[in-house]
Design goal:
The protein is of the alpha/beta class. It has helices spanning 12-24, 35-45, 61-70, 87-94, 107-132, 148-160, 177-186, 205-213, 230-233, 249-261, 289-292, 298-304, 321-329, 340-348, 354-367, 389-393, 402-420, 425-432, 436-445, and strands at residues 4-8, 28-32, 49-53, 76-81, 99-102, 167-170, 195-199, 238-242, 263-264, 273-274, 278-283, 307-310, 337-338, 373-374. It is 45% helix and 13% strand.
């Protein structure tokens, strides 16, 4: 079925010329010499794209465009104008036109714009189709995505939700681990009981133990009354420990006992308290024995890693980006549209900060689009250094001792090179610039064989 284009132009010579050009390109062409006829044809024939002149003998093109949108036409619209001012372009884009062309029209430029507009329309239709045909995953609060990696996440949530298994959520920062914890709780048999959340990285270490386990009056300075900890607050429900890798070794030992024995002791008390809560932990770090290099207890890791769900980074599910963008645009308190070239800029970015970074960029773009149209200039993405040296240096754990830090760096480099080389040891050695024999020794040393 041929793509259908409606040309609304009152100058017959221009109308004839445009029609012949488009027919030569294989398009089916509809013609109208005034706004009312063009509007009727558009609503009846449902063309894929409309070339619409601003100056028409009965009603102007902007009015036609407004009535098209009110009539639920989803055709891509390109405005044609001889007006050299920006007002027509602004009014056109405010009312949902894909772009505008200044007369006299360059044929090559026109054909390029038509191709872009039709591609963007296909994308919009696909987004609507996916939204309308979303399976059960769409009922998971806050979660957006239909890519294969996200479908796997939904399946894993469905499998584990009704069990009592402890869950470890892994993935880069900003991938939505808290949303998955919410979903597991909401779909579990504990949904009517509380979901208690603790960000282990946000609470000072000297306060975190009391926060988790509670304390008795007089347990320490300023403990003027008994306090119930998060474990007890989550009785019958779910306890979510975010950034669990930030726990000190001492707290890891106490958490291990709580997980194993299902009992806790408040600070200042020797009386064990039975706790009944489902535990979900999350981390952006590798807690495995080979990955943590002694910074996280191996026995606790295996207690937490009964059932693991890995959240994919946004760069591995780029097909979900238009859906996420639509979700964030929908939060605006005023109508906002996104130009195709702005969407292309968004999709082409690697999003190291994942969904959280995308959300912040869209929120900023909405503010920077006073006319309600987001252009590429509104998509302000923070440029990161070409190397990770600065970022890495600022996070070197210097208090762990020189040789411990060196071991961690070596293990990270070897693991990264093996991943980059997809397990090919010769290639990994070449990437690192070392002899293959040395690579084998380091793999054995760090348990990567």
């Amino acid at each position: 079925m041929r793509t259908k284009i409606l040309v609304v132009e009152d100058e017959r010579t221009a109308l004839q010329s445009l029609s012949l050009l488009l027919e030569d390109e294989g398009y089916e062409v509809l013609r109208a010499e005034c706004g009312e006829v063009g509007l009727a044809l558009a609503l009846h024939e449902e063309p894929d794209l409309i070339l619409l002149d601003v100056r028409l003998p009965d009603i102007d093109g902007i009015t036609v465009l407004q009535r098209l949108r009110a009539g639920r036409s989803d055709a891509a619209v390109l405005i044609m104008t001889a007006d050299t001012t920006s007002s027509s372009a602004i009014r056109a884009t405010q009312n949902g036109a894909f772009d505008y062309l200044s007369k006299p029209i360059n044929d090559d430029h026109l054909l390029v714009l038509i191709g872009r507009a039709l591609e963007y329309r296909k994308l919009e239709i696909e987004v609507r189709r996916l939204r309308d045909t979303t399976p059960r995953a769409a009922t998971i609060p806050g979660m957006v995505g239909h890519s294969l990696p996200m479908q796997e996440v939904y399946k894993m949530i469905g499998r584990v939700a009704n069990s009592e298994a402890t869950v470890l959520l892994t993935g880069e920062s900003g991938t939505g681990k808290e949303l998955v914890a919410n979903a597991i709780h909401e779909f579990s048999q504990r949904a009517k009981s509380p979901l208690v959340k603790v960000n282990c990285a946000a609470i000072p270490e000297n306060l975190l133990e009391a926060e988790l386990f509670g304390h008795e009056r007089g347990a320490f300075t300023n403990a003027v009354a008994r306090r119930i900890g998060r474990f007890e607050q989550a009785q019958g429900g779910t306890l979510f420990l975010d950034e669990v890798a930030e726990l000190s070794m001492g707290l890891q030992a106490k958490l291990l006992r709580a997980v194993q024995e299902r009992t806790i002791e408040r600070l200042g008390s020797n009386h064990p308290i039975a706790v009944d809560c489902r535990l979900i932990a999350a981390t952006a770090q590798d807690l495995s024995p080979s990955g943590s290099l002694g910074r996280f207890r191996e026995d606790l890791y295996y207690r937490l890693n009964v059932f693991s769900i890995h959240l994919p980074p946004l760069r591995n599910r780029a097909e979900d980006i238009p859906l996420l963008v639509q979700r964030f645009l929908g939060r605006s308190d005023r109508p906002v549209s996104l130009r195709e070239d702005a969407l292309e800029r968004i999709i082409s970015h690697s999003w190291p900060g994942n969904v959280r970074e995308l959300e912040n960029v869209i929120a900023r773009a909405i503010v920077l689009a006073p006319g309600g149209v987001i252009t590429p200039d509104c998509i302000q993405i923070a440029h990161r250094p070409s190397t990770e040296a600065g970022t890495f240096e600022s996070h070197i754990p210097h208090r762990e001792g020189y040789w411990n830090v060196i071991r961690r760096v070596e293990a990270h480099l070897v693991r990264a090179a093996l991943l980059d080389a997809m397990g090919n040891k010769a290639e990994a050695a070449r990437i690192l610039g070392i002899q293959r024999r040395l690579l084998y020794e380091k793999m054995a040393e760090f348990g990567l064989a």
